[in-house]
Structures are given as C-alpha cells and as structure tokens.
Amino acid sequence: MFKNILIVGCGLIGSSILRASINKKISKNFFVYEKSKKNIREIKKINKKIIILKKLDNKISDIDFVIIATPMSQYERVIPHLNKHLSEKSLITDVGSTKENISKLKNNSLSKSLDWIMSHPISGSEVSGPKYGSRSLFINKWCIVFSDKNKIKQKKLVNFWKKIGSKVIIMDEKVHDKIFSITSHLPHLIAYNLIKTAQDFQKIQKKDVIKFSAGGLRDFSRIAASNEIMWRDIFFNNKKNVINAINLFIKNLKSFKKNIENLDDKTLRKKLVNSKKVRQQILNLKQDIAKPDFGRDLN
Amino acid sequence: MFKNILIVGCGLIGSSILRASINKKISKNFFVYEKSKKNIREIKKINKKIIILKKLDNKISDIDFVIIATPMSQYERVIPHLNKHLSEKSLITDVGSTKENISKLKNNSLSKSLDWIMSHPISGSEVSGPKYGSRSLFINKWCIVFSDKNKIKQKKLVNFWKKIGSKVIIMDEKVHDKIFSITSHLPHLIAYNLIKTAQDFQKIQKKDVIKFSAGGLRDFSRIAASNEIMWRDIFFNNKKNVINAINLFIKNLKSFKKNIENLDDKTLRKKLVNSKKVRQQILNLKQDIAKPDFGRDLN
Asked: Angle, to 10 degrees, between the axis of helix B37-46 and the axis of helix B12-23?
C-alpha cells in the first residue's frame, strides 16, 4: 500500500497503528519519530525493522504516508517540518480527538502543496504509552475519516483504516465535534468531576470513601485516570461544545434534584426506566456486550 | 449455623445469599418467600430442597434467621408478619442500601421482642433477578454490619457474612448513609443524568450519538441500566445526603467549566492529575484491578 510510513508520536495509539501496519504489511518501511527515551525502548522491542528518527529533517522526504499521533498541542510544532521536507505525493493524517481546531490549523499553517486528511479512530483506554499498544486495537471499531477534495487520497486513507480492521464512516468536522462532546468529552469530564467531588467530600467529612468505592465510584475512577495532556487539549479545543454539554447536563441534574426533593415518584421512575432504552440501543448497535458486570475479578 | 433460614424477596441479592448459604451448609432448611412467578421458576432450579412459601404465616414460626432482600419500599409490608409469627430467638437482617430510614422503620414498627440487625453487602450489578445470582457474589467484597445491643446475635450475623466470603466491617447508619451517598448513590445518579443528557442532545440536534458511544458514554449506560425501583428507593430514602452530594458535584462542575472557559491550563491540569491519585488508592485497596480497559470484546 505504501513505501514509507512515518508515525509521529508513538504512544498508545501510534504504536497500535504501527503494530497493526506491520502485521498487515501496509508498508515496505516503518519510520517512527518519538522523543521519549522510555517510549523508544518499548518501540524497539516491537520489531527490528522499525527505523527511529531523532529529527524530522530531509530523511522524511521519501515518506508517502504520515500519521500524526502526538497530543494535539504538539501539532503546530510538527507542521513546519512537514512543510519543509515532505513531497506533494505524500498523504498526511492525524488521530486527534477534536477536529474544528485541526482543520483551522492545517488551513492556516500547512503548505498548500500538501494533503492532510483528518482521521479519528474511536479507540483507546485510560492507559498511555507504547507498552499498552495492540495491533488489534482498531478491529471492529469506528474510524471517522473527514471529507476532502482529493478523493483519490481520501479513498487511500479509508482503505488503510479498513485494512487494519476499522469500520470507516465519513463525517464533517462540525458535526463530529458536537457528537463527541456528548459521547466522549462530557463523560470524561463528569468522571473527573465525580472523583474530585469524592476527594473534597473525604477532606470535609474525614470519612474513608475510597475503601468503599466498589459500589459505583470505582468505574468512574478508571475513566478519570486517563492522560491529562490529551484531555486538557480536548476540553480546550472543543470549548464551545463542551460548555454547551455541561450546561445541558447541569440543567438535567437540577431537575433530577427537584424530583428527589419532591419525592416525585412518577417523573423520577420514568427517567430511570428511559435510560434502559439507551442501554438496549447500545447493545443492539454492538457498542458493548450484554454480559453483566459484577466488578472485575479481584481474587 | 442455623436450623431454618428464610429469604424474603429472592432477586439478584436474595438468590445469591441462598446459593452461597446452600453451598456453605449454613442451615438445615432453606425457605424462600417470593411473589414473582418468573422468579419462583428460576429459584426452583437452584436446588430441590428449597421450600417456597406463598404466605408469611405461622409456617415461619420456627425460622431462626430471616434475610429481607426485597426493594426497601416493601419492608413495611413485611414487618407485621414478622411481628405476628416470629419467635424472639430469631435473628432478622436486611440488605438495603440506605440505613437511617430502615433504622427508624424498625424502631417504630418492629415488635420489641424481635432482633433486627442491619447489613449492607457491597455487591451487585446492573442486572436484576435470581437468574443472575451467584454463590460467589460476596467473596472478598465488603459487607457492612450495623452495631447492635445484642452482641451475641451481632457476632452471629458477622460470622454468617464471613462464612459466605465477605469481609465484614461494623459501622453506624449515619456515617454509612453519608459515605454511600458519595461512593454509590451520586455515581448512579450521574450515570442516569448523563444518559438523559445524551438523549436530550440527540432529540435537539438530531444527531446519532448512540452509535459512537464507545468513547465513554457506553460505560455509563451500563450503570444507568440498573433497577429503577431499587434506585428510586435509595434516592428518596437518602434524600438529604444525596442532595448535598449533588450540590457539591454541581459546584465542582461549574468550577471545571470556568477553567475551560478561561483556558486555565495550570488549574485544570492539576485537577486531572489529582484524579489519578484516587485511582491508585483504589487499586492499592484492591477495589479494582489495574488491567487496562479497551472496551469489552465485541468480536
């Protein structure tokens, strides 16, 4: 499919793309640009033919596929090097979690001779780093590819994601940033906020809450252990939509509070039953499995 | 340990106690009082020696251990039968999720000759019914037993829970209801509220959010599929503490919102990093395992 792939930033997602690409023989050569020495040690274990680059210089002029997988706040530092050294036959993509900002950035800073078509694979975990990467991370998961004028390269990008196992859907960045403010950004913020609230409660009440976290708090703590740089970038870059989502959430929570204050059985129960419908839709769409969760096996 | 155990209400928790008790030979005879015909069919499959009662009448006069495992809103209907038919040598417990209300109820309605010592096993799931019960549900999980004047019977109750695998801790009901408002009741309410917010968003924006729920929303939808009767009872019975928890949560969320609005990198990142400490405490206390979660295997 390609001659020379370059992965810029090789953490959980970058190294999973690397592993999947090697496994599916997506390219002849595999280049990685990564700064962290710890990460480099892990990456070297994956495969001997991986070429580690210390600089983004003229060694990248023959790269035909670049995947940017650094935190989003690093993208603007990467672009000047791509502008200087990449050829116009190359294809660039990224795996950032918000898209309006990246779209603006590439319109403003990327050389007009280069093609950057955005991607967003919907996969990940609360852990970070190449140690946790997996070649099967993308299998049966959605990958969103963003519409581009260059339909030949767009097709090439879609085929790449399909080849490593993704289900691909084409979307517009405005729609994307709205949808993910609700399905991903708000849930993560809520998890962080719940843990903060438990910490504050523990401080004020001097009661040991962590010890009894198995009743619900535990599941949120896992989500709230996600990478802080990644999530700061997401919250800041999707500020407008995230704030709208927070406002809608607070409005609904105040209404729940009123139902509880008034012991409004009918309204409260209707809301609680309604949630089950969403769960059923999620199961029908195979976004989760129906197997009940009793807490993971601690024995 | 006992001659005749009676389980009143034999759903997920009741049937798990039943299974564990049979397995550990806790009693000579096993009685179950259950109204749902569907549940009775499931319970009969567990073991042939289980005796199903259709009424709480003079057949229960020889029961020496009663476990009430109905929704809490049913307790007041059960008590008159216990008053009428149980003997003073018996021991009563319950598995309700809030305790100040149950403490009041038994002080007001239970015959003074009977002993009811409260329990709260910290285990469960989003599923309901005896079909999902398991004899190992309580193994290595906390069970809270509430202090009582009758220390002999209290010891007996503690030994019962230990025998079926629980780690037991003695607590006061006021402290319990405060702690669990934060570790369990608030997280469940937040999950319900997040799903409600996603539904509202989908209605307003006419965008398909459920399809892309793998990025965070999915995990909350599981929790929000929990039994609505059980959770209505909890929210109503622990109203004061739950409302305090909601208020603290909203205060913190508004502060997060301000940090995002102001792009306040330092404060936001400090909060995000702090959450990881709680996660580490939860892992150290063996309330969860460190294995990363990439979404459950959908293949």
From this structure: 20
Task: Count other C-beta atoms under 10 Å from residue B156's C-beta.
Answer: 18
Query: Is A2-171 in CATH node 3.40.50.720?
Result: yes
Domain range annotation of chain B:
2-171, 175-284
CA distance, residue B297 to nearest chain A CA (Å):
8
Q: Which pLDDT score, from 0 to 100, does residue A245 have?
A: 97
Residue B24 C-alpha, separation from nearest chain A C-alpha, in angstroms: 19
| Interface touch B122/A212, C-beta < 8 Å | yes
Phi, psi of B74, rounded to the nearest 5 degrees: -95, -10
What ipTM describes this predicted complex?
0.90
Instruction: Tell me how far apart the terminal alpha carbons of chain A are, to the nearest angstrom.
Output: 46
**What is the dotted CATH code of the domain comprising A175-284?**
1.10.3660.10
User: pLDDT tens digit string along A112-135?
Assistant: 999 999 999 998 777 889 999 999
Q: Are A285 and B253 within 8 A, CB to CB? A: no
Inter-chain CB proximity A187 and B261 less than 8 Å: no
- Residue A149 CB burial class (10 angstroms; 0-12, 13-18, ≥19): exposed
Cα–Cα distance measured from residue B178 to residue B173, given in angstroms and rounded to the nearest whole number: 9
State how far residue B6 is from chain A, nearest Cα, in angstroms: 25
